[in-house]
Design goal:
Number of helices: 5
Number of strands: 6
Shape: globular
Strand content: 15-25%
Order of helices and strands: HEHHEHEEEHE
Structural class: alpha+beta
């Protein structure tokens, strides 16, 4: 069965033709770790749902961006990285920094409580956003 050549592959080919390495698009999520701990003690499923909500919202909001379109064209190769923020304050500071630096993202607020739970960036090449996320470790 023949698979169509998607925009991610085309981006890679254009860069390869210019001598540059192909761009790999990644969607980063930063999820509050403290929600899994006392006094919150949210179940794992609830935390996973927060990440899913944030990722879906970011993909929808930025659906017309070329990187998002390319990312969604190759579902078999989507890459997500889930990082942890220790608490609400750290998550909010990150959201402010991303806003200041014009990094497209969605801060997900759990309703009806209006609790900030997760930030999802739209798909980006790692090199474009890594500097803002390097202090966060992988979610455990």
């Amino acid at each position: 069965m023949h698979r169509a050549v998607g925009p991610v592959v085309l981006l890679g080919r254009k860069m390869a033709a210019s001598g540059a390495a192909p761009q790999i698009l990644v969607q980063y999520l930063v999820l509050r770790k403290d929600l899994s701990q006392t006094p919150f003690s949210w179940p794992t499923g609830a935390l996973v749902a927060q990440g899913c909500h944030a990722a879906t919202a970011a993909l929808h909001i930025y659906r017309d961006h070329p990187y998002t379109a390319a990312y969604l064209q190759d579902l078999e190769r989507m890459r997500k990285v889930v990082l942890e923020a220790p608490d609400e304050t750290t998550l909010k500071v990150l959201a402010e920094t991303l806003q200041e630096k014009n990094i497209d993202h969605k801060l997900w607020l759990e309703q009806p409580e209006n609790i900030p739970t997760c930030i999802a960036l739209r798909p980006y090449p790692k090199e474009e956003v890594g500097q803002y996320l390097k202090k966060f470790r992988l979610f455990k």
